[in-house]
Write a structure and sequence with these properties.
Helix 1 crosses helix 3 and helix 4 packs antiparallel against helix 5. The chain folds into two domains: about 120 residues, Alpha Horseshoe (Serine Threonine Protein Phosphatase 5, Tetratricopeptide repeat); about 40 residues, no CATH class. The longest helix is centred in the C-terminal third of the chain and has 18 residues. It is about 70% helix and about 0% strand. It is mainly α.
Length: about 160
C-alpha cells in the first residue's frame, strides 16, 4: 500500500510541474519500476530535470508496449519528444494517444499548442523539400493578398 501512495504522490507532483520533487519520490521508493504509467511519468521528470532524453524515451516506449491502451503514456512520450525538439515524433505520439481516447484533454491541449499544419503543397515530396517551401510560401502570400491582409495589395486602391 505504501508503494501505491508513493506512486500517486510522484505522479501528482509530475502533473503539477514539480519535476524535481517527483523525481526524488520516484527514485527514493523505486515505485515506478513495475507500473508502466508511473514509469512514463518518471521518464518525463527525468527528461525535464536531467535532460536524459534518450533514456527517458526508451523508458516511455517500454511503458507504451506494456500498456498500449493508455493514452496518458502517449501524452508523456509526446512531451518528452517536444523537449528533445522532435515535434514530428511528438505529433505522432499525440495522434496515437487520440486514437485510444478521442477526448483526452491533455493530448488535445498539446496538439493545440503545436498548431495544425496544412498538407505540403506537393505531397509527393518531403515537407522540407525546397520546392515545397517555395510553393508553400507563394500560396501563403497569394492567400494574404486575396484576404486583403497583405501589406502591398488586396485593397484595390493604389495611391
Amino acid at each position: 500500500m505504501q508503494k501505491e501512495t508513493a506512486v500517486e504522490k510522484a505522479i501528482l507532483q509530475t502533473r503539477r510541474g514539480n519535476f524535481r520533487r517527483a523525481l526524488s519520490i520516484f527514485e527514493e521508493d523505486g515505485c515506478h519500476r513495475d507500473d508502466p504509467l508511473a514509469t512514463s511519468y518518471y521518464a518525463l521528470a527525468l527528461s525535464v530535470v536531467r535532460k536524459e532524453y534518450e533514456g527517458a524515451l526508451s523508458l516511455s516506449i517500454w511503458a507504451a508496449k506494456k500498456e498500449f491502451y493508455n493514452p496518458e503514456i502517449y501524452l508523456n512520450i509526446g512531451k518528452i519528444c517536444l523537449l528533445m525538439g522532435r515535434k514530428d515524433l511528438a505529433f505522432r505520439a499525440f495522434k496515437k494517444g487520440l486514437r485510444i481516447d478521442k477526448t483526452h484533454k491533455g493530448i488535445i491541449s498539446q496538439l493545440k499548442k503545436l498548431g495544425i499544419r496544412r498538407a505540403p503543397a506537393i505531397p509527393q515530396l518531403p515537407r522540407r523539400h525546397i520546392l515545397n517551401k517555395i510553393v508553400g510560401r507563394l500560396i501563403h502570400e497569394l492567400k494574404k493578398i486575396r484576404r486583403g491582409t497583405h501589406p502591398q495589395g488586396g485593397s484595390g486602391a493604389d495611391f
